[in-house]
Amino acid sequence: MLEGKVVVVTGAGGGIGRDIALLMAREGASVVVNDLGASLSGEAGDVGAAQRVVNEIAEAGGKAVANTDSVADAQGATRIVGAAVDHFGRIDAVVNNAGILRDRFFHKMSDDEWDAVIKVHLYGPYYVSRAAAVHFKEQQSGSFIHMTSTSGLIGNFGQANYSAAKLGIAALSKSIALDMQKFNVRSNCIAPFAWSRMISSIPTETPEEQARVAKMQQMTPAKIAPLAGYLASDAARDVNAQIFAVRNNEIFLMSQPRPERSVHRSEGWTVASIAEHGMPALRASFYPLERSGDVFTWDPV
């Protein structure tokens, strides 16, 4: 379904990105496999990761090229997109998947931990998407696929930096969709549930934690790839500005913020009347202080 397409996949040296790159190639796309080779926390690491995925694609008869630039650098992002145009003559889809984690409870988080995650998870998709947008506008077509997270859409402990970036991606995607729909360019998000390097540091010290991780390990990165492939294909030409989640064999359409309930006073509000009437009337519709695991409570199927 992707014959003749050229797709950039960032952070594709392992995990979800690798499986997306492999599927794109199996479906006929030429793929730019981008991976800095960094560790989970962002330090320099295995620069050969991208090339190994390229070798896998080539051995299966596909076409791919490796790129090791950082998405967190505007010039690097331009080179990532340039690799697609230079090697394959065009670019049709971008999968913004690259990511790092620097988890810390908010009151203990350092500026460096905040900056590093925001640069990769929010600036990165902006830089790469902005570089690709020029080509998409010129050719009057293109698909952006951004990886968000229920940590941002719903909430999670110890991830203020990651959660803020991932909710920001959802807004970025919507803005791209609105601004570029007239050029036949679409932009969608996927919130993936998958066992990967990004969540492999979850503690397994108690039987409860071990059981939780065992369930998560059922959700392999390969389960995410088909939806990304679909969104990159012409079959998804009418799918735009949506947020999906994939959890093992389930695909969810996620809600987006809309007015939930309202109260009105013709004479206007005072501090006292808000306390006495306004807030009690709204309280029944308050959202509880939930995290992702409190919402997705059933076992993956």
Automatic annotation (TrEMBL):
Record's protein name: SDR family NAD(P)-dependent oxidoreductase
